[in-house]
Every structure is written in C-alpha cells, then in structure tokens.
Write a structure and sequence with these properties.
The protein is α+β, with helices and mostly antiparallel strands. The chain has one domain. Helices cover about 20% and strands about 35% of the residues. The protein has a 4-stranded antiparallel beta sheet.
C-alpha cells in the first residue's frame, strides 16, 4: 500500500525508508523563510520472506535528538564545476536563515 520506498539501505536491501515532509512558506515579514511543519521518516525492516519484522517511526521532534556525522566523502567523479559551486553558495546565503 505504501509503494516503493524512497530509498533502501546501502548494505541491506530489506531495510526500506519512507520520507514525508510538509513545509509552509514564511510570512511576508520573513520573506524567503520556510517553516517545517512535519518531518516524518518510516523505517521498515523485512525478513527474507518479505514480512515486516521491525518498524520505526521518527517525527520532527525525534530528528532533533539524532546525532549526524559531520564527515564528508569527496568524489572526484561527481565534483561540481565552479559555476555549480558558486550558484550553490548563493543559494545557501539566500536560504541560510531557515528555521526548521
């Protein structure tokens, strides 16, 4: 009923992830800002027979408690051009004050 997952685990094809995010445009006073209304993640783990053996649901509040790695992996194949890097920098400056 849920359809295909948004993504699966890199090392476990039986671990499926579904994402649901709802945002609202900021008010005129906060032009360009976006408010995060909902940020939900559903994680399903299947056994080898395709039966769900574990499910986890994370909401917006849970996301604040998760520690994320700051490490980055450099990949020379997908390295951005100067123009792409410049435009991404401009976009970050435009939308950098978002409050989620």
């Amino acid at each position: 009923m849920l359809g295909n997952p948004h993504t699966t685990s890199v090392d476990d094809e039986n671990l499926w992830f579904y994402f649901d995010r709802k945002i609202a445009s900021g008010k005129l006073i906060k032009f360009g800002d976006v408010d995060l209304l909902e940020n939900n993640v559903l994680v399903l783990n299947f056994n080898r027979y395709g039966v769900v053996v574990n499910k986890e649901f994370f909401d917006k509040q849970d996301m604040k408690e998760i520690k994320y790695s700051e490490m980055k992996t450099e990949n020379p194949v997908t390295k951005d051009s100067f123009v792409t890097s410049f435009l991404q920098s401009v976009r970050q400056k435009m939308y950098g004050k978002r409050k989620f």
